[in-house]
Amino acid sequence: AKICFFIFFYMWVRWTIPRFRYDQLMHLGWKILIPLAVINIIITGIVMVLFGN
Questions:
Q1: What is the sign of the dihedral through the CA atoms of 41, 46, 51 and 53?
Q2: Which of 15, 20, 39, 41 could disulfide-link to 24, CB 3.0 to 4.6 Å?
Q3: Using the 8-state DSSP alphabet, how is residue 1 labeled?
């Protein structure tokens, strides 16, 4: 039963989540994730300078 459940769960997840094309993944990385990472680094640095030991 456990194996059947995990096979069903794996198939369900694979069939319901849409696949991304390469250009969509590149757009997500360059236009969204990298700017978010840079903003996160800047905010972390400001917090460490202001509230650090």
A1: positive
A2: 20
A3: -
Please give the sequence-ordered ranges of beta strands (E in DSSP) within 1-53, or none if there are none: none
| pLDDT value for 53 | 67
20: which residues sit within 8 A by CB, 6+ positions away?
A: 28
Cα 37 to the center of its chain, rounded Å: 11
Q: Tell me the pTM.
A: 0.59
Cα distance from N-terminal residue to C-terminal residue, the chain: 54
Q: How many CB atoms lie within 10 A of CB 6?
A: 10
